[in-house]
Amino acid sequence: MIEQWLEDYKILSQEDLLSAKREIMQQVALAGLARGGFFEHATFYGGTALRIFYGLDRYSEDLDFSLNYKDAAFSLETFFDAIKQEFILLGLDVEINLKQKRSVSPVESAFLKENTIWGLITLGEKSQNRTNFPIMKIKIEIDKTPPLLFSKEIKILDKPYSFYVATMTLPSLFAGKMHAVLFREWKNRVKGRDWYDFEWYVNQGVALPLNEFVDRAINSGHLASSDVINTETFKEMLIQKVQDLDIEKAMVDISSFIQNPSHLQIWSKQYFYDLIKMMKVE
Which helix (H) or strand (E) holds 147? Predict the structure, then answer.
């Protein structure tokens, strides 16, 4: 079944194979979470949700979730057995463990890791260097005290079997992405994936629900409830972010997640200024 699943992907390189393999693991994990009743409590969001359910043309690394209510005691560990059982049903073996926190945070993280057998099965004859192919690790995160002003819908996946996933709607995903664009703390690194997604949302004509963005920013402490944010002030914040953006670093970051890097040739600060003018805000 895994080999047949890989046939759905356009694999032109070792990097493509690695990305396809990661996405298969992500969907098997989603199936385990669904079977375990996880989506009665949480909603899928982030880049992987955008790719799997809405057609974003780039790969994504993590599985991100928002609890549907605030509960600092909630734990992903409750669903570990359901995730592992889903892989066992496919004849595969994985490990999953909570990430040990260095500081207090409302976000809980876990790492899902394949073992050698799973790696070799999925590679088959598609890799010329099977012994050096990296072991896959996927981060799963959930915000346990999230902003609750978001909308969701129920989507269906048909692999490894048909199941339903609660996922944020495109506007709510856009609000989360703009929060990441403006406030993600990556020190000297630049997450070009955020800017690639911003470009995608604007070109798709998705309108940003400003109230949801503000709710997220207040919840994270980046804005005060007394701050006045309207379309003009929001776009001014975004323009300032572009002024500080290292375009070259952004292009390097995104290039390994897309199959056609020539698409990035148009990227420049002026291009992002023009996208800001084009974006819809409600």
Answer: none
Is there a single domain that holds both residue 144 and residue 10?
A: yes
Q: Are residues 118 and 193 in the same domain?
A: no
CB atoms within 10 A of CB 14: 16
Residue ending a domain, among 168, 201, 232, is 168
Task: Note down the domain range covering 96.
Answer: 1-168
Q: Are residues 127 and 4 in the same domain?
A: yes
**What is the CB neighbour count within 10 angstroms for residue 28?**
22
CATH number of the domain to which 76 belongs: 3.10.450.620
What is the model's pTM? 0.91
Q: Using the 3D structure, point to which of 133, 168, 203 is the last residue of a domain.
A: 168
Whether 154 and 182 map to the same domain: the answer is no
Q: Coil, strand or helix: which one is 65?
A: strand
pLDDT of the chain along its 282 residues, tens only? 777 788 888 887 778 888 888 999 999 999 999 999 999 999 999 999 999 999 999 999 999 999 999 999 999 999 999 999 999 998 888 999 999 877 778 999 999 998 855 555 555 554 454 546 678 899 999 999 999 999 999 999 998 999 999 999 999 999 999 999 999 876 668 899 999 999 999 999 999 999 999 999 999 999 999 999 999 999 999 999 999 999 999 999 999 899 888 999 999 999 999 999 999 999
Domain tally, the chain? 2
- Rounded CA-CA distance 256/64 in Å is 20
C-beta of residue 80 within 8 angstroms of C-beta of residue 107? no
CA atoms within 13 A on the CB side of 251: 13
Taking Cα atoms as reference points, which of 62, 64, 63, 57 lies closest to residue 254? 57
